[in-house]
Amino acid sequence: MNCNKVLALSLLCSLPLLANAQTVRIVTDVSYPPFSKVNPDGSIVGFDPDIARAICAEAKLQCEVSTMDFDGIIPAVQAKKYDLAIASMNITPERAKAVDFSDMYFNIPGRLIAKAGTKIDDAWFKGKTIGVLRTSVQREEATAKWVPKGVKLKLYGKVTDSFLDLSNQRLDAVYLDANVGDEDFLKKPMGKGYSFVGPVYNDPKYYMGSGIAVQKGNKELLAKVNTALKKIIDNGTYKQVQNKYFSYDIYPFK
């Protein structure tokens, strides 16, 4: 087997092959660096794929990874096209009706990105257009808190599309996970002249951490994922993965 050719679609080359083992099908969204992206050679890289590798290795699972846009992931898991999703998915009560969630594996607050120097207060929101991911926790919060203040939400399947609209002044702001905004926009040439504005948003009603989504009712796989996740946190593997991509803790270590 040529592992270089298979890497883009699977993790098989990094894991022990188990005789007669059923392959665990994992899906992620590669429009969300540094959590996940596709390299020019087709390989899937980032925090989420690395955590997937670590969990599968610890649990001695044979796994393969595929990619799709974020808003199609839960329906695909529900339809049993995939066994689990490791895709930086915020845990919410609504999503928990459709899939089962692992224990939290990271927690990052939300931030607004707008022109540098923008002052955010209640009056600012009236008449503004803010971009959010269509199936994100940020959409839920913005719908509840800002739409009544006069905000129009523009919905996106890929956060990178919202950055293009923001840089072309078709949006007043984008609301998203803070780290993604920092790594994939503010630190890029496109983000020049923009910054985080307003407060850090971390309302526990909306920010319950991100979890690994498992097919509803698959208690055996969920237990294996949670056990492996705890082990990689306890043995330092999680920290090693985290430190490849972040300069600060994204998990609330004690």
TrEMBL record:
<feature type="domain" description="Solute-binding protein family 3/N-terminal">
    <location>
        <begin position="23"/>
        <end position="249"/>
    </location>
</feature>
<dbReference type="InterPro" id="IPR001638">
    <property type="entry name" value="Solute-binding_3/MltF_N"/>
</dbReference>
<protein>
    <submittedName>
        <fullName>Transporter substrate-binding domain-containing protein</fullName>
    </submittedName>
</protein>
<dbReference type="Pfam" id="PF00497">
    <property type="entry name" value="SBP_bac_3"/>
</dbReference>
<feature type="signal peptide">
    <location>
        <begin position="1"/>
        <end position="21"/>
    </location>
</feature>
<keyword id="KW-0732">Signal</keyword>
